[in-house]
Amino acid sequence: MPAPNYFARNFDTTPTPTPMEQVQDNRNIATSEEPYCNPRLDPKNYLEGPLSDNAATRLRQMLARPGIIVAPGICDGISARCALEAGFDCLYQSGAATTASRMGQPDLAIATLNDFVEAGNMVASLDPRVPVIADADTGFGGPANVARTVRQYARAGIAGLHIEDQVQTKRCGHLMGKQVVSREEFITRIRAAVLARDEIPGGSDFVIIGRTDSAQVLGMEEAVTRLKLAAAAGADVCFIEGVKSKELLESTVAALAPKPVLVNVISGGLTPSFTSWEAEQMGAKIIIFSLVSCVAMVHGVRTAMKSLKETGTDFSTAKGMDPKAFFEVMGLKDVMTLDAKAGGTAFSQVFAPPFFPPTSSSTSHTEMSNSGVSLSGKEVAKHNSRQSCWIIVHGKAYDVTEFLDDHPGGSKIILKYAGKDATQEYDPIHPPDAITNNLPPEKHLGPVDPDTVEKVEVKITDEEKARQQRMSARPSLDEILNLHDFEAIARQVMPEKAWAYYSSAADDEITIRENHAAYHRIWFRPRILRNVTKVDWSTTILGHHSSMPLYITATALGKLGHPDGELNLTRAAAKHGVIQMIPTLASCSFDEIMDAAQPGQVQFFQLYVNKDRNITKRIVQHAEKRGIKGLFITVDAPQLGRREKDMRMKFEAEDPSEVSKAGSEGVDRSQGAARAISSFIDPGLEWADIDWFKSITKMPLILKGVQCWEDALMAYDAGLAGVVLSNHGGRQLDFARSGIEVLVEVVAKLGEKRGLKFPNEKFQLFVDGGVRRATDVLKAVALGATAVGVGRPFLYAFSSYGPEGVDKALQILHDEFEMNLRLLGAPTIKDVVPDMVDASSISSHGSAVPGDRLYDSNYESMQHARLRDATVKL
Ligand SMILES: Cc1cc2nc3c(=O)[nH]c(=O)nc-3n(C[C@H](O)[C@H](O)[C@H](O)COP(=O)(O)O)c2cc1C
C-alpha cells in the first residue's frame, strides 16, 4: 500500500511514485496551502501508557507529557556512555562535535550522510530505548537529499532529527554571517522529510524537527514565520537557533504554541546560558547542550596530555581509574553477562567478582580490594549510621565513621549519604584525591560493583532554584565597575554556605573591617608636571615579572564558589601576567592547577605545615619539582579563628540532635566549617623549624602572617626571603592590626635596626587584607611593600561570573593603576615613593574618615542566634 498523503486530507490512493516522480511531487507539495494533518501522530495519542521501548515513540510520549526534555550533546561512544551513566533519558548527536570527533576538523558540513548515520547508529544501539535526536547535517539540499537522510536515520534507530534552512555550502554554525535558503526552499525540505517519514512501511513515529538559523541574519520575526510554516508543513517540533534573550524565547514559544519548541544552549554562544529549569519555565520543551561533551573533552584531554608531557606519567590525571574501571563505564558488565549467558568463557577471569561475591563477613576489606573482588552495594548500604558509616566515592567504598566529626562541612551531609554513593555531592567541593589523602589506608575499602549500587537522586531545592534565577538576573560584566561590585553580586548569587565561608572573619569581625578602613587613614601627596604620557605599573616579585604590584593570594575551597574553583584564577593570572599563590587547601588538586598553567607561568605555593613532617616534606618537594617559585609558610594559624557566620551556617545545616549529641561527647565544634580542614596543622611549629625547611627546599621561603616588627626582624635574621604582613583577612585573631599598619612600623624598625631600605630585593615585604582598589596597592608600595596580596575580591569575581569575572577584575585593576599613576605623577612603580603618601595617622585607630559607602553596604552584619522554628511568635 502506498503511504497516504496527509497534506491532501483526502488520502491519496495513487501508486507509489518513482524517485523522479517523487521530486516532481514534492515541488507541487511545496506550494500547497494545505496544512499537514496526520491523526495517528496527534500528541493526544501519546499521553497514556508506559513509556515505549521504541525510541521514536518514546520521544513522542516525552513530548506529549509534562516536563522538559534535556538532551546533552554527544559525539561518540565515550560521551554517549557518560551521558547515559549520568542518567540522561535523551541524547543529542551534535553535528559539529561529531564531525570534529570523526574527522578532526571543525564543522564545515564535510562529513557525509554515511559518517553521521554510522555514528548515530552506534550511539542509538547503546541503550535502544533512549531517544537520540540527531543534527541531520546532511539534511539540507534538495528534497531527495532530505528524504534519503530521514530514511537512513530512521533505519539506524535514531528517534528524530532536525532539518534546517542553512545553505548547502554552509559556514560553520558558530561563525557569524550564516546564509539561509528562501522560505519556500526551507518548507520544501520539511515536506520532503515528512513525506519520507510517512512512507516508511508500517508507519513511523520518527520525529521531524524544523530548525531555522534565520534569526541571526533575517531577524526574529522572519525566524518565527519560518517556524510557523514548518509546523504547518508537518514539523513536530520547532527549533529556533540564536535566541538572544529570555523574552525572545518566551515570545517564540507563545507564537508557536502548541508546537513544542527546542532551544540550543552553548556556553558562550548567542543564546544565554539558560539552565534546563529556566528553559522549562520559559516554556521550552526540549533543551540541548550541543557542545557539552566536546568542550569537556578538550579540557580533560588537554590537561592529561600536558601533564603526561611534563611529568612523564599519567598517574595524577587517571584519578584512580584503572583499565577495568574504564571498561566498566563503557559497558563491560553487559558484555560479560551476555558472554556468560551464551556459555562463553572469555570473561570468566574478570567475571569472578559479581558472580562470587564475598560470602563470609569475616573477609577483610584489604583482602577484598587486593584480590580485585568488588564489594556489593548492599553490603555498603548496611553501614548507614553514625556507629558505622561507609560511603562510596568514584566507585570505591570508604569507612568514614571516625572522620564524621572532623568533616569541614559537618557530619550531617556525610550521614545523608551513609551507605550510599556520595560522588555527586563530593565532586564539586573536594580535590579528587582528598578522600584518599585524608583517610588512613585501612579505611579504603576497595571497589564496589556499580550494578548493585542504588542511584542517589540529587534534588534541586526551591532555594537553589531561586538562587539560579538570581544568577540569571546578574547585570552584564560591562556594568561591573570596581571590585566592590563583584562582592555585592556574589552575596546575592552564591550558595549561602559558600558566601558564609568566604565572607566570614573572626569573632566580632572588627579586624576584617579595619583591614580596609586602615587604607582610609593614608592620604596621597601627588606630584605634578611630570611627563606621564606613558606609565608602567609592572614590577618584579621575588625576581619574577608581574604586570602589576599585586598577586592573587591563597584562599581555600575555590569550588564552593564555582565548579572550576582555583582554575579560574590560574587562567586569568596567565592572561594578565600576574602571579597566583596556590593554597594547600585548594578544592582542585595541586597537579590539576599546575597542569592548567601556561608554560612559563609563575606560581607560588602557600603551605600549612602538617604535624607529620614527612607529609610536609613530600608536598614541598613535589611543589618545587613542579616549578613553584616561592614557598609561603602560613604562620598565623596554629588554630583556626572562630568564624561565627560560618559556624552559624554549619549549625543550621546540622540536625539539632546531632549537634547536642556530639557536644555531649566532647567533640569540639567551636570552629565551624574551618575546623577539620585545619586539624592537621601543627601548632608546635617554631622558629627552630626554619632550618629544616631550608634543608628540604631551595625555593625562597616567606612567612605569611607576620604581625609585628619583632617577628619581621627575626625572619630577616633567619635568612628568609621575605614576610607577608597579614592577619589572614581578619579570619584569625580579632583586633589584630591591619597589614598596612604593620608595614609602616616594620619599615621603620628594620631601617633602624639593620639599616634596610624598602622595597628591598633581598628581603621583600608583602601586605594583604582589605585591598580593593589600585590606590590601596599604591599606598602599600609607597610605604615599602614589594607587592600586595588580594584574596576575597577574586573569589567573589569567579563565584558570580566564572573565569570572565576574574579576567574583568584584573582588567579593572589595570585601568585603575594606569589612571592613578598619572594622577600621582609617577611614571613607574619605582617613582611611587614614601613622600607621595601621608601615613601619619595610620596607627591612630580612632581617627574619623568619611564612610566608604560601597564597602560598607556590602559588609553583612553578623547575626545573633536564631529560633529554629520561624513560625514561633514572640
Ligand atoms: C575564604 C578564604 C580562605 C582562605 N584560605 C587561606 C588558606 O588556606 N591559607 C592561608 O594562608 N590564607 C588563607 N586565607 C587568607 C588569605 O590568604 C589572605 O590573607 C586574605 O584573604 C587577604 O584578605 P582579603 O580577602 O581582604 O584580600 C583565606 C582567606 C579567605 C577569605
UniProtKB/TrEMBL annotation:
A GO CC annotation recorded here is: mitochondrial intermembrane space
- GO BP of this protein: lactate metabolic process
Question: Which cofactor names does the annotation list?
Answer: FMN; heme b
Listed GO MF terms: heme binding; L-lactate dehydrogenase (cytochrome) activity; metal ion binding
Keyword list (alphabetical) reads:
Flavoprotein, FMN, Heme, Iron, Metal-binding, Mitochondrion, Oxidoreductase
Q: Tell me if Heme is a UniProt keyword of this record.
A: yes
Q: Which reaction does it catalyse?
A: (S)-lactate + 2 Fe(III)-[cytochrome c] = 2 Fe(II)-[cytochrome c] + pyruvate + 2 H(+)
Residue ranges of every copy of the FMN hydroxy acid dehydrogenase domain listed in the record: 475-842
Q: Where in the cell is it found?
A: Mitochondrion intermembrane space
Q: What is its EC number?
A: 1.1.2.3
The family database entries (InterPro entries) matched by this protein are listed as: Aldolase_TIM, Cyt_B5-like_heme/steroid-bd, Cyt_B5-like_heme/steroid_sf, Cyt_B5_heme-BS, FMN-dep_DH, FMN_HAD, FMN_hydac_DH_AS, ICL/PEPM
Q: Which SMART domains match?
A: Cyt-b5
EC class of the enzyme, as a word: oxidoreductase
Q: Which SUPFAM superfamilies match?
A: Cytochrome b5-like heme/steroid binding domain, FMN-linked oxidoreductases, Phosphoenolpyruvate/pyruvate domain
Could you tell me which residue ranges the Cytochrome b5 heme-binding domain spans? Answer: 372-449
Identify its protein family: In the C-terminal section; belongs to the FMN-dependent alpha-hydroxy acid dehydrogenase family. In the N-terminal section; belongs to the cytochrome b5 family.
Under PANTHER family, the record lists:
L-LACTATE DEHYDROGENASE (CYTOCHROME), S -2-HYDROXY-ACID OXIDASE-RELATED
Subunit organization: Homotetramer.
What is the protein name stated in its UniProt record?
Answer: L-lactate dehydrogenase (cytochrome)
Q: Which organism is it from?
A: Leucocoprinus birnbaumii
